[in-house]
Write a structure and sequence with these properties.
310 residues, mainly alpha, 12 helices, 2 strands
Length: 310
């Protein structure tokens, strides 16, 4: 007799309150284990023993919890993933706060590096399993139901998918490609979400131009009001503001590049928004201005210049 998909399975178990036997769907909140996942915090920027100890303890705690999750059988894994809000908050915190490659390198303690690598690996394996609707002939979810589960429970959304690409693209390219393709194949609504997200992404470029006192070009450009003509430019803005703009730009572009590299099918959606024209126009206006501002500025610490230029 062929195995039933997880979404059609029923389990008979004893009710802990009444002691009577009851039948539950295999995907039910009562089956979720009572476990509390903690939020991720990145490695400390300064070498402080107390902060270091706190990071190591927290990161090991999360890694142990995720390894426990990964060791669960198929049905219990999915009950935890769907019904445990602390798990989703923990995973979200890692995607948002894990160090990117362009971040300033912290004074890396060998133990910090080892723990961070181990945690990084566990987070990736968790998302990989969450993106898989069929683990074996016996353990699988109906593809259409899987698409509904990941979408309706916000297990994946466009910001998460972008973060996954930038954090895990290098070294996991093929696996990540299969993972993202499967998500979009089983739930085509993500294409619509991507289409709706792109104007917000493109607005980032306009925001940077505005901050640098530059005028946007193209149909989307709004005429500048006379009272808005301020004298702030990339060359004379406060150093911290220049740093923020450079990091903001790096974050946006590195993320988009990683996503399109992993999932080229998204290019069609980008093209609908004249992305190539907008990007080229932005580059011509902003990059020479930012390069000039970084070169000409006087720095008390040369490492700041080196980092901005990098």
């Amino acid at each position: 007799m062929p195995a039933l998909p997880l979404d059609e399975l029923q389990l008979t178990q004893r009710d802990p309150k009444t002691g009577k036997l009851r039948t539950l769907p295999a995907l039910h909140p009562d089956i979720k284990a009572d476990r509390s996942f903690v939020l991720y915090k990145p490695p400390p920027a300064v070498r402080d023993p107390a902060l270091l100890e706190e990071f190591l303890e927290r990161a090991k705690f999360i890694a142990d919890d995720l390894n426990w999750l990964l060791a669960l059988p198929h049905d219990k894994f999915w009950c935890q993933v769907i019904f445990d809000e602390t798990l989703q908050k923990c995973l979200d915190s890692y995607l948002c706060r894990a160090p990117r490659k362009f971040d300033g390198m912290w004074d890396c303690h060998p133990e910090v590096e080892d723990v961070q690598k181990s945690l990084h690996h566990s987070v990736f394996l968790t998302f990989l399993r969450m993106s898989t609707h069929k683990e074996s002939k016996e353990h699988f979810i109906t593809p259409s139901v899987f698409g509904e589960i990941i979408y309706n429970n916000f297990l994946f959304d466009i910001p998460k998918i972008l973060d996954l690409c930038v954090l895990f693209g290098k070294g996991n390219g093929l696996l990540l490609q299969k993972m993202i393709e499967n998500i979009f194949t089983q739930q085509p609504s993500y294409f619509g979400d991507l289409d709706e997200t792109l104007p917000t992404v493109l607005q980032v470029f306009n925001n940077i131009l505005h901050k640098c006192g530059l005028q946007c070009e193209g149909a989307s450009a709004e005429p500048q009001k006379l009272e808005e003509k301020v004298s702030v430019t990339a060359g004379n803005m406060p150093l911290q503001e220049l740093k923020d703009i450079v990091l903001y730009l790096c974050d946006t572009c590195t993320t988009l590049w990683a996503f399109l590299d992993v999932f080229p099918l998204a290019c069609q959606t980008f093209q609908k928004h004249e992305f190539c024209y907008r990007l080229a126009s932005f580059y011509e206006l902003a990059i020479p201005e930012l390069e000039s501002a970084i070169k000409k500025r006087h720095y008390e610490d040369n490492s700041v210049f080196a980092d901005l230029w990098r």
